[in-house]
Each structure stands twice: as structure tokens, then as C-alpha cells.
């Protein structure tokens, strides 16, 4: 053969009458092929592991031999998917490409039962583990023999043993006897089961074979040496091993097989347990020699077990002397090389086997500690001893290292097979594997305990807490340095006597201290209490005392250990927090919590005297603009000034509180009627309309006020606050700057407002918002100058909601930002559509809300919309109200300047109704002034309206601004505006708001008419 192979054997164990006798023959056959053997022992009786779960060495091994079902379903599936040959010994292959080497269990057991029938037995029982493949085949052979002779099958005569060992044979026999079924012979599925049957029968006073005949299966060493000697079936171990190895190598070399299953015949061995021969009779000298050899091997094996037990105990003693157990002290058997690799994760979460311990008794090379390996490439081939390589006399043993705590990894051992392993299960290295796993657990727990101890030592050394230890037997307390330091400011000196602690404590707290330490102590009830210690200068030190009981093995309390913490500062902070909990930090006014308490008290007083009280909710209008433009520092100053002014408007017995933001609430503790509320509200509104001077700048405020009364409107605190809030919101929705009194209708209106707000949040994505366009016409040419964009909301129920109904709500909730963005984008898209339709470069006007105008990045938004829609800046006119423009003049100048630099036009809307003057327009970079419709409506009949319109037009022209008159509805108004040389008009007379398509048709019609 040109090149050897690596053959893997997977077996539950590597010793004993079955595995220990089969493995040497496999090893010899592999050596004859100049190849290398890897034996993987997978069973762990302590953990209940019976199969190999992970593909260890899968990338190294060329072919596999599986002894009994010793691999998990996952491993078998991996093996079935690979191209690696494998042979199953003692069970059928689960995959068609796998081969099986089986002894003829069924025929052999049938011969055994036939032999008992020939002795005249008609009631034969069967004992064996029916869950195991080969044992079930033997059970079928038992059934075959009964059927062949026409004997009835009795289910009670069949006992399913737990395993193939001696104890299971004893237990099975006891079940058989207890069942009451009659039997004269027992055919056991294994020799150890059979020996257990004999032991149980003899212990009950029965004789074998005189009372009962017994047969076994396997022909283990004890079978010949037992009394009586056991009639059995001899397993063909050598033939099975050679056939398995032959098939593996034939498959490796590409040979084909007619059959994938090989049946190896077994030999029936007749001895005295079936009554064929007496113990003293031997058919030949060879039989006698074999008998004596079995006795000799039994004595040698028992001696070996004794020596191994001594070595294992000695190795364990040596290993446990140190903090860390080393595998060289645990594996004292014939293994001379070892490598322990444990599972560890790297920084990327990848799992590797990392070498952590190695040894070599012969001085062979070992892998360096810390070396990483993948599961399928362990053990490291290059480091294995020369004696294990192709054709070598030693084998490589692999074993998983597991415990109850975790899967630790794998250990690889190298050495010769123990010649006595084929006699009994005397390889005590099994226990070494268990000890190793437990040792790893111990090391982990030791490291954890040491880490905790180190942390506790650091905490005790560095903590600000004092530590105390009360020995209940000596009745003395030990205090650490920190505890003495904490209590150093007390009047009484601290000692180890418990009474000294009580003397330190404030008299009012001494009873709580005595109660905490009162016997009998309770388990799981730690001591925790806050105490005052009497200090110098009549001051008190607050301490937190905590402790827990230490119990001895008898359940007696022997010590109390605890800590002492200085919480004086914490208590002072709590007092300050309690004070702040009822006071607004910014204005010094009561907060909501204190207001509710005082309102509750006032309601109880009014319930007794039958008088009335009122609750007023105050919200400063548009105060958010101040914060957004001038910053919260200026806003806070303005709030403080406003709060001071509001407080001066109410009586000494009344209460005003700040709820947060720009919201205030007032309790008028005693009123005669609504007239008293109106009087207070009038004072407040007049006070707020006066200019507030801050940092050289004047600010004008207004407020929305809502009020309700007790007991007519509500009978509890929350209801009164809620109803006042509803009245305030109703006032705000209707323009603000006035008082509103609660009515029951407002509650339903509040529900409507909530529904409108909810619908508005989804209006854009549901495409419910619609743009209309109202033409703007030049009075000098009669041509269409452009159009103003107007927004409508078409609800799903077909209702059309006008802007004055939902725009204030959108501004209040902040929804105006996304809605305004959508309007700007859609208007510019429509303008581009008009231009593409061949219309001249019209101007599209879009109204800006105050919130949009306060956005610092709004000019960037405009640039992006212009770029995305493709219209030129001069096609866009942005309209802001007069109020928005003058609210923060500095911000307006800067923001409008940036927009003008972009190239868009700016128009001041609703001019004339605010508090500004035309002179202010000199400071603002604007292009157009739009006269409010209220001045146009009656300008023909009302001389004041006409005079205002004339003044606005003349002064605007003097400043270089154009003028657009809104709300033009009659020809007379048009003619008068022409006389006043107004530049453009907009209103129902020249065109109502219309859709984009209608606007195109309108433009074409008016263009033809003008033409």
C-alpha cells in the first residue's frame, strides 16, 4: 500500500468483555495496513452520555468504525453526507452507503433455545435488554425456536432488562419469580445477565441446573470460571474486527461490494448450566487448560483493579494538593502523552479548542499551550508521538470532557492498549475523565470565589461605609476604622460593648434599634434602619445601619455582621427635595402637586361653608416662538416677569401655580360668581398687553384663559383642572387673548378636536390634502401675475375642512412643519407644470407658518425644493404674516435676507391688522405688501378703510414695495384700487380658489380676453 490511513473507532467504552476484546483485534488489523488508529470513548455513565455529539477529528480521520450505536443523530447525518467510508459493528448502518458487520445473533440464540428444548424444557423464559439492536435480534431467535417446535409464547416469560450487566440479570429474575409464571429454563441475552439470573436463583434456594437451566451469550471469561459453568455463545471478535477493517480499506481503495452487510457466525459452547456436563468433567485437556487460564486471568485482573484503585487514589491526592489539577497526575496508566484542549471564544465570538495542559512521559514533543484548533482538526497530528503514527504500536484515545456545569472540551491521550482491558472493565481512566471534569469545575468556582474575595477586600478597604462584627457568644462588637471615623463626632465614646452604641443613638430612635436586635432572630430578615446619632453642638448625624445574621451548622445565631453609612447629607438633600417637590424652581410659585393639595383643601372648606371657588387655566399665546428665536434663557426671564405680574393680579388668599412651560393655574379660593373671575382675568390680560422690556427689547404677550367653578362644574380636583383646561383651549382656538368659561358642550368639542388631530396626522399620507390656487391679477396690464396657494382638507367622509379650522391645530401640535413642507413642494411642482404647459413664468405664492419660519435650516429646505422641482427662484414668493415678521425683528431680518439672497420673493401678508408700522418695513428685506381684506371690504362706503388702503399703497411705493390687495369682490373696489395705483388684486371678483387644471384653463381664457 502506497500510503496509510487514519481510522477512527467510536465506542461507548474501550475496555470490558466486549469493547476491550474487540478493540485489540481492530488495532492489530489497522497496524497490518500500516495505518493509524484513533479511538474515541464517548460514554459517561455519571452524566448519562451514550453517544458522540460533536464531529471531533472529522477532518483528520479517513474512515470510521462505529461499535454499537455510539454516535449521535447529528454526527451520523454528517457522516452520511460525507464521502468517508464507515462500517457499523454490532448494529445496522442507518445509511445505504454504510456497511455493517454483525454476528448471526438470531440463529445463534435459536440454537441455544433449541438445545434447551432438546433437554425437555417447554417453559423457557428470556431475559435481555430489548432496546439494544443485537439483543433484540437474540430475542427474535428465541421466538423462532419456540415457533419451530410449536411451543406457545408467553409474554410474562420475557423480561426486558435495563442493560447487559449482572445487577440487571438479578432484578429481571426477581420480576420473573414475582410474576408467578411457570418456567424451567432461562435464555439470557448476555453472559452477565445470565450470571445474575444464576445468582438470584441460588440466593432463593434453587439449584442450577437441577431446578432451572440457564444459558448466556458472549462467552466472557467469567462464564467458564463460574459455578456452574455457563453454557453460552462465543462471539467471533477477531473475525468481526478483521472483517470491519477489511471493508473499510476496500472502500478506501475503491472496491465494490455485492452486499453491504456481513453476518459472522458464532460458536455455541456447551457447559454445565444447561445440565449437559458436571463441573468436574472436561471433555479434553484443552478444556481444562482453558478453564485454568480463565481463573488465572481473573486473579490477575482483580489484582490489577486493586493496584489501579491505589494508583488512582494516589494520583488524586497528588493532584488535589495544588490549586490546579494537572492531567499528568491523573492519567497514571499506560498513557505516556496527553493534551487537554478547552473550548474558548475569541473576540469575534468564534469558538476554538485551545491547548491548556500537556504532558509527555517519554520526552516527545507536545503542542504549545495557548495553541488554537478547530474541532475537526484536533488532536494536532504533527505533535502526536512517533509510536502512534502509521503502523505504530500505540493508539490515540480521544475523550470529551464534560460535567454538569458545561462542555469543557477534549483530551487526547497516546499509549498502548492495556492487555487486561479485554478481561473486565478495569480501565479506571474512566474515573480520571470524570475527576478531570470536576476539577475544571472546581478551578472555575475557585477563581470566582477568589475574585469575589478580592473585590470584597477592596470594597472593605476603600468603601466609605463602616464595617461592624458582633460576636453574639462574647457579646462584643468590632468596628473598623471607617466606623470609628463616622461616629467620631458623637458625644459618647464608641467601645466594643453593645451598650455603647445605644448610648450614641437619639432617644427617639433607641426603641427601634432595640427592636431590630431583639431575639429570637429570624432568618432571611436582614437588619436595616436609619438612626440619628447625637453629635456635638446639638447637631445630629444620620446613619444607615444594616446587618445580617451568621448561623452555625446547628442553626444557632452566632454573629451579626453589617455596615454603617453616614447619610446626613442624604437626609439634608431629601429635605431640600421635599421642599422643591412643592415649588416651581424657575418662578418660585407652587407647582402642580402643591396646587392640587391646596385645591382639595379649599374644596373641603367650601363644602362646609356652602361658598364657591374657581379654577383658572392660563396659557401664554405663541410663547414657543420666544424660546425658539431668542433661546430659553430669555424665555425663562420673560416667564419669571409674567409669573410675577400674574401673582399681583390675584388676592392674598388665592393661589397661582406654574404647571410647566408657559402654563399657569389659579385658585380663586372664594368667589360670589363669574363676575369675580372675569374681573381677575381682565387684570391679567391688561397686565400682559403692556410691553415687557428685556435686554433692551420690548416683548408683547397675550394669554388664553379658561375657567370653571366649584361646585357647579365639578366636584373633584382632576375634573376642575380638566374643565378649566378645556375652556382655555377653546379660547385659544378662537384667537386667544380673552377669558372663556367652561360649558358641557366643550367636552364634546374636545373629543372633536382629538379626532381632528388624529385625522390630520394621517392626512398627508392618505392624500387627503388638496391645493387650490387663487389668481393674482396685475391692475396695470390686466394679465395674470401668479396665484396664491391655498390648502383644503378633504376628509374620508366627504367633508371639506377649511384652513382656519385645522391650521391652528396643526401649528399647535407641530404638524404644520411636515404639512408646510408638503405644500411648498407640491406648489412648486404645479408651477413647473404650468411652465411646461407653455404658460409664462408666473409667480406661485406659498404661505409660511411661524413654526416653519423659525427653522434655522429653512433656507436650505427652500434651496432643495427649488432644485428638486426645477423652477427658478423668481417663480416663488413666500408669504409671512405681519405678526410673524415683527415678533422677532432680528431673526426676521436675518432669515428673510437669506431667502432674498436665494432669489425668491417675500410678501408681508395681512398687513394693517397688527401693531407694526410701515416704517418697520424699511428694516425688512421684502418685495410685496398684501393689504388685509378687512380694509378692502368696506373701502367704498368706509372712508377709514379707504384712507388706510391709500396710505399703505403710497408708503409702500415710497419704499420701493409693490402692493397686492386681498379680498376684492366688486368692480367698485377694483376701480378704486386702480385709482390708488395698487399693483395687483386678488379676490372673488377676479377668480375664486380653483384646482391646478382649472387655473390653466382660467389663464388661457383671461389671456385671450386681454389679448
Key attributes of the depicted protein:
1011 residues, elongated, 38 strands, eight-stranded mixed β-barrel, eleven-stranded mixed beta sheet, transcription regulation, transcription, alpha/beta
Q: Over all CA atoms, what is the radius of gyration?
A: 51 Å
State the strand order across the main sheet. 11-5-4-3-1-2-16-17-13-14-15
Spans of at least 5 consecutive residues with low confidence: 424-428
Query: Into which percent range does the helicity of residues fall?
Result: 40-55%
List the helices and strands and how they pair.
Layout: E1 6-11, H1 16-32, E2 36-41, E3 63-67, H2 73-81, E4 86-89, E5 99-103, H3 105-118, E6 124-128, H4 133-148, E7 158-160, H5 166-179, E8 185-188, H6 191-203, E9 213-215, H7 221-225, E10 232-234, H8 237-252, E11 261-264, E12 267-269, H9 285-321, H10 327-330, E13 337-345, E14 351-360, E15 372-373, E16 395-402, E17 407-415, H11 429-462, E18 466-471, E19 476-479, H12 481-486, H13 498-504, H14 507-516, E20 527-534, E21 540-551, E22 557-566, H15 568-581, H16 592-609, E23 612-620, H17 623-630, H18 632-648, E24 655-660, E25 663-671, H19 674-689, E26 692-694, E27 697-699, E28 703-710, H20 717-733, E29 738-741, H21 744-763, E30 769-778, E31 784-794, E32 800-801, H22 803-813, H23 816-836, E33 843-847, H24 850-854, H25 858-869, E34 876-881, H26 882-887, H27 889-902, E35 905-911, E36 928-931, H28 933-937, H29 943-958, E37 962-966, H30 971-979, E38 984-986, H31 996-1010
Parallel strand pairs: 1-2, 1-3, 2-16, 3-4, 4-5, 5-11, 6-7, 6-8, 8-9, 28-29, 31-33, 33-34, 34-35, 35-36, 36-37, 37-38
Antiparallel strand pairs: 10-12, 13-14, 13-17, 14-15, 16-17, 18-19, 18-22, 20-21, 21-22, 23-25, 23-28, 24-25, 26-27, 30-31, 30-38, 31-32
Helix pairs in contact: 1-8, 3-4, 5-6, 17-18, 20-21, 21-22, 23-25, 25-27
Amino acid at each position: 500500500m502506497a500510503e496509510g490511513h487514519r481510522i477512527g473507532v467510536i465506542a461507548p467504552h474501550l475496555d470490558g468483555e466486549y469493547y476491550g476484546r474487540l478493540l485489540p483485534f481492530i488495532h492489530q488489523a489497522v497496524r497490518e495496513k500500516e495505518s493509524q488508529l484513533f479511538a474515541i470513548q464517548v460514554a459517561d455513565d455519571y452524566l448519562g452520555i451514550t453517544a458522540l455529539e460533536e464531529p471531533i477529528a472529522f477532518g483528520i480521520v479517513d474512515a470510521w468504525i462505529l461499535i454499537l450505536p455510539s454516535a449521535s443523530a447529528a454526527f451520523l447525518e454528517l457522516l452520511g453526507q460525507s464521502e468517508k467510508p464507515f462500517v457499523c459493528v454490532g448494529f445496522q448502518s442507518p445509511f445505504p452507503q454504510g456497511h455493517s458487520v454483525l454476528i448471526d445473533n438470531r440463529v445463534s440464540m435459536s440454537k441455544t433455545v433449541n438445545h434447551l428444548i432438546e433437554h425437555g424444557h417447554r417453559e423457557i423464559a428470556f431475559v435481555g435488554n430489548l432496546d439494544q439492536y443485537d439483543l433484540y435480534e437474540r430475542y427474535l431467535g428465541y421466538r423462532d425456536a419456540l415457533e419451530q417446535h410449536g411451543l406457545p409464547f408467553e409474554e410474562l416469560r420475557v423480561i426486558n432488562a435495563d442493560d447487559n450487566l449482572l445487577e440487571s440479570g438479578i432484578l429481571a429474575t426477581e420480576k420473573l419469580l414475582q410474576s408467578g409464571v411457570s418456567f424451567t429454563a432461562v435464555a439470557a441475552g448476555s453472559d452477565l445477565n445470565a450470571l445474575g439470573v444464576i445468582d438470584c436463583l441460588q440466593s432463593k434456594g434453587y439449584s442450577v441446573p437441577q431446578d432451572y437451566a440457564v444459558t448466556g451469550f458472549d462467552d466472557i471469561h467469567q462464564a467458564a470460571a463460574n459455578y456452574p459453568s455457563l453454557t453460552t455463545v462465543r462471539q467471533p471478535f477477531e473475525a468481526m474486527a478483521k472483517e470491519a477493517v477489511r471493508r473499510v480499506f476496500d472502500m478506501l481503495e475503491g472496491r465494490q461490494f455485492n452486499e453491504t452487510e456481513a453476518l459472522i457466525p458464532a460458536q455455541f459452547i456447551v457447559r454445565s448450566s444447561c445440565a449437559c456436563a458436571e463441573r468436574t468433567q472436561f471433555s479434553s485437556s484443552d478444556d481444562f487448560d482453558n478453564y485454568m487460564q480463565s481463573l488465572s486471568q481473573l486473579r490477575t485482573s482483580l489484582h490489577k483493579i486493586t493496584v489501579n484503585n491505589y494508583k488512582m487514589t494516589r494520583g488524586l491526592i497528588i493532584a488535589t494538593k495544588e490549586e490546579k489539577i494537572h492531567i499528568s497526575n491523573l492519567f497514571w496508566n499506560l498513557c505516556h502523552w496527553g493534551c487537554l484542549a478547552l473550548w474558548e471564544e475569541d473576540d469575534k465570538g468564534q469558538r476554538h479548542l485551545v491547548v491548556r495542559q500537556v504532558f509527555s512521559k517519554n520526552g516527545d514533543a507536545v503542542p504549545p499551550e495557548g495553541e488554537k484548533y478547530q474541532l475537526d482538526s484536533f488532536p494536532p497530528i504533527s505533535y502526536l508521538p512517533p509510536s502512534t503514527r502509521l503502523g505504530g504500536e500505540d493508539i490515540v484515545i480521544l475523550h470529551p470532557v464534560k460535567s454538569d456545569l458545561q462542555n469543557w472540551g477534549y483530551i487526547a491521550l497516546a499509549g498502548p492498549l492495556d492487555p487486561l482491558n479485554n478481561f473486565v472493565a478495569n480501565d479506571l481512566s474512566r474515573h480520571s475523565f470524570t475527576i478531570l471534569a470536576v476539577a475544571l469545575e472546581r478551578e472555575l468556582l475557585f477563581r470566582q470565589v477568589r475574585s469575589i474575595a478580592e473585590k470584597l477586600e477592596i470594597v472593605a478597604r476603600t468603601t466609605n461605609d463602616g464595617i461592624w462584627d458582633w460576636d453574639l457568644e462574647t457579646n462584643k462588637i468590632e468596628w473598623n476604622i471607617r466606623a470609628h471615623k463616622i461616629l467620631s463626632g458623637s458625644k459618647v465614646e464608641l467601645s466594643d460593648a453593645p451598650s455603647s452604641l445605644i448610648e450614641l443613638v437619639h432617644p427617639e430612635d433607641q426603641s427601634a434599634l432595640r427592636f431590630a436586635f431583639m431575639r429570637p432572630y429570624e432568618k432571611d430578615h436582614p437588619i436595616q434602619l436609619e438612626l440619628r446619632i447625637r453629635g456635638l453642638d446639638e447637631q445630629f448625624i444620620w446613619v444607615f445601619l444594616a446587618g445580617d445574621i451568621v448561623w452555625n451548622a446547628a442553626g444557632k445565631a452566632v454573629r451579626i455582621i453589617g455596615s454603617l453609612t453616614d447619610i446626613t447629607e442624604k437626609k439634608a438633600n431629601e429635605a431640600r427635595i421635599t421642599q422643591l417637590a412643592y415649588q416651581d424652581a424657575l418662578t418660585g410659585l407652587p407647582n402642580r402637586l402643591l396646587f392640587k393639595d391646596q385645591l382639595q383643601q379649599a374644596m373641603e372648606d367650601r363644602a362646609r361653608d356652602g361658598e364657591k371657588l374657581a379654577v383658572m387655566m392660563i396659557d401664554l399665546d405663541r410663547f414657543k416662538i420666544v424660546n425658539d428665536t431668542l433661546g430659553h434663557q430669555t424665555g425663562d426671564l420673560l416667564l419669571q416677569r409674567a409669573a410675577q405680574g400674574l401673582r399681583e393680579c390675584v388676592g392674598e388668599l388665592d393661589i397661582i401655580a406654574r404647571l410647566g412651560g408657559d402654563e399657569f393655574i389659579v385658585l380663586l379660593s372664594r368667589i360670589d360668581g363669574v363676575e369675580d373671575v372675569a374681573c381677575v382675568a381682565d387684570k391679567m390680560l391688561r397686565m400682559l398687553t403692556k410691553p415687557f422690556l428685556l435686554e433692551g427689547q420690548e416683548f408683547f404677550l397675550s394669554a388664553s384663559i379658561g375657567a370653571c367653578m366649584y361646585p357647579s362644574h365639578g366636584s373633584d380636583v382632576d375634573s376642575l383642572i380638566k374643565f378649566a383646561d378645556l375652556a382655555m383651549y377653546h379660547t385659544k382656538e378662537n384667537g386667544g387673548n380673552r377669558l372663556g368659561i367652561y360649558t358641557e358642550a366643550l367636552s364634546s368639542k374636545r373629543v372633536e378636536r382629538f379626532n381632528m388631530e388624529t385625522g390630520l396626522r394621517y392626512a398627508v399620507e392618505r392624500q387627503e390634502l388638496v391645493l387650490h390656487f387663487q389668481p393674482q391679477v396685475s391692475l396695470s396690464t390686466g394679465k395674470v401675475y401668479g396665484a396664491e396657494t391655498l390648502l383644503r382638507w378633504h376628509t374620508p367622509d366627504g367633508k371639506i375642512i377649511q384652513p382656519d379650522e385645522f391650521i391652528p391645530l396643526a401649528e399647535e401640535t407641530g404638524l404644520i412643519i411636515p404639512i408646510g413642507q408638503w405644500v411648498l413642494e407640491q406648489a412648486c411642482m404645479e408651477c413647473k407644470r404650468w411652465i411646461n404647459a407653455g404658460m409664462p413664468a408666473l409667480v406661485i405664492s406659498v404661505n409660511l407658518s411661524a413654526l416653519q419660519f423659525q427653522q434655522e435650516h429653512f433656507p436650505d429646505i427652500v434651496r432643495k425644493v427649488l432644485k428638486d422641482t426645477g423652477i427658478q427662484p423668481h417663480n416663488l414668493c413666500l408669504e409671512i404674516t405681519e405678526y410673524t415678521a415683527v415678533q422677532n425683528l432680528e431673526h426676521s431680518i436675518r432669515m428673510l435676507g437669506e431667502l432674498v439672497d436665494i432669489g425668491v420673493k417675500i410678501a408681508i401678508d395681512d398687513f394693517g391688522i397688527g401693531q407694526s408700522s410701515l416704517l418697520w418695513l424699511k428694516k425688512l428685506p421684502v418685495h410685496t405688501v398684501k393689504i388685509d381684506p378687512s380694509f378692502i371690504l368696506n373701502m367704498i362706503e368706509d372712508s377709514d378703510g379707504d384712507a388706510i388702503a391709500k396710505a399703505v399703497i403710497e408708503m409702500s411705493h415710497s419704499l420701493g414695495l409693490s402692493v397686492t390687495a386681498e379680498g376684492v369682490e366688486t368692480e367698485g373696489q377694483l376701480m378704486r384700487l386702480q385709482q390708488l395705483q395698487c399693483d395687483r388684486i386678488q379676490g372673488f371678483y377676479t377668480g375664486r380658489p380653483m384646482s391646478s387644471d382649472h387655473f390653466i384653463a382660467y389663464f388661457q381664457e383671461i389671456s385671450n380676453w386681454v389679448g
